[in-house]
Amino acid sequence: MAVESCLSRLTELLGDRLLFGSTTVQLNESTFNGSLIALYFVPLGDEIASIDDQALRDLYKTVNENEKKLDIIQICYPDTIDDRKCFDELTKSVPWHTVLYEYVEKRIRLRHKYRVENAEHLLILNDNHLEKVHTRNGLKLLSCEKSFPWTDLWNEKICREALKLTSNEANDTIYGLYFSAHWCPPCKAFIPQLIHAYDKIRKRINFEIIFVSSDRSEQSYKSHASTMPWPSVPYDNNILRTNLTECFNVRGIPYLVLIDNNGNIITENGRAEIIEDPDGSYFPWRKRFVYSLSSRLLPKLQSYPAVVLFIEGDQEEELELAEGVLLPVAQQIAKTRNNALYDLLFFIAPDDDTSDTLRHFTRLTDDTAPLLTLIDIPMARISVMEYGIHITEKSIMNFVLGFFDGTMKFSPIL
């Protein structure tokens, strides 16, 4: 049963067939027998001639000379274009597996699932379930002095090194890694808000924060750290500070990520959560069945398909009525339609500027409300429930099931 479950998950993620060289092969339980699996993301764009994977080929050959230790799955995701000629150029001679060109949705969803930017990425994963990321920095590690599999540089070990800086070792402790710098005005402005939330939360829950500095001098680091009541990574431990920044793909500061004691991410955008929830009443802000749409949540729609119910007003009573019909559907979908590639999110969109922004972006010119939609920005498409159908728990469920069984009709988001 475990083998069947693993194969089912792999098929859901990658498809039932893969490309190997110029041959299409069937995915089965023995396709990947390496100790580690790597996902190699390559953008399909105009710069394919600049992509040099020789170092990765050399590693693949070396570590697999005596026995299979590494499997690589290449995902060529649409970036500036999605061109078959580019795809064939990038895959015709690689010695590992590739997700098929025909599986365009899987290639797009995989990119968003693993939070891959517009560049090459090599992610080292833990097992055939492709569940846990050991490291996001595989390409950088190709040139490091340490030998494969780079266990000293895996995310979990780096996080554990950072968590040793705190005195709280309770298993239920939630940790915040706060990336900040003295030269950054938004960082300085956010610290009083973070301290306020920190004090409130610690009265109820085991919570610790560690400051990870991006300061340009030790003097600036010390000045900045002195304004915070929590420990920090020492300035002279530049390796740990750099590794943590890369582990969590930090692209801007201030940035607060919440993790457990194994380095697993609980909440990525802690800063936005604190701004909206200053006392940390909903800490640690885990995934909800139904969200009320706000400007801070708009980025979620860039990565996941979402059921969005636009309503007429923005009062608490109207929001509660909308949640009453949407919540049972969201709970049932989460229970019965779990998908390895993505989460289907559910939103209530009050009548406000954020909803107007979303309508404009999706070319939803009709300002009717209530209006039930399924907005799939990663796939650049939108579906609107047929006009005249009363919005009830049953009609919402029927609409959503069409998404899963492939009968839902979409219009492109141009």
From TrEMBL:
One of its GO terms (molecular function) is thioredoxin-disulfide reductase (NADPH) activity. Coiled coil: none annotated. PROSITE patterns: THIOREDOXIN_2. This is Nucleoredoxin. The gene is nxn. InterPro entries: Thioredoxin-like_fold, Thioredoxin-like_sf, Thioredoxin_domain. Residues 139-295 form the Thioredoxin domain. SUPFAM superfamilies: Thioredoxin-like. GO terms for biological process: negative regulation of protein ubiquitination; negative regulation of Wnt signaling pathway. GO terms for cellular component: nucleus.
